[in-house]
Amino acid sequence: MRYLPHTPEDIDAMLKVAGVGSLDDLFQSIPPDGRRKKPLHLPEPLSEWELNDHIDKLGTGMAVGPNYRIFMGAGSYAHHIPAVVSDLLGRSEFVTAYTPYQPEMSQGTLQAIFEYQTLTSRLLGMEVANASQYDGASALAEAVLMAMRISRQKKQVAVSRAIHPHYRRVLETYLAPTDYKIVWLPYRPDGVTDLGALDTVDDLAAVAVQSPNFFGCIENLETVAQRAHAKQALCITAFSEPLAYGLMKNPGSQGVDIACGEGQSLGIAPSFGGPALGMFATRMKHVRSMPGRIVGQTVDTDGRRGFVLTLATREQHIRREKATSNICTNNSLCALTAVMYMATLGKTGFKDLARLNYDRCEYLKAQLRNAGFALPFAQPTFNEFVVDFGKDFEKTHLRLAADNVIAGLPLERYYPELAGHYLLCVTEMLTKDDIDRLVAAVS
Question: Which residue from 200, 259, 264, 331 has the fewest beta carbons nearer than 10 Å?
Answer without folding.
Answer: 200
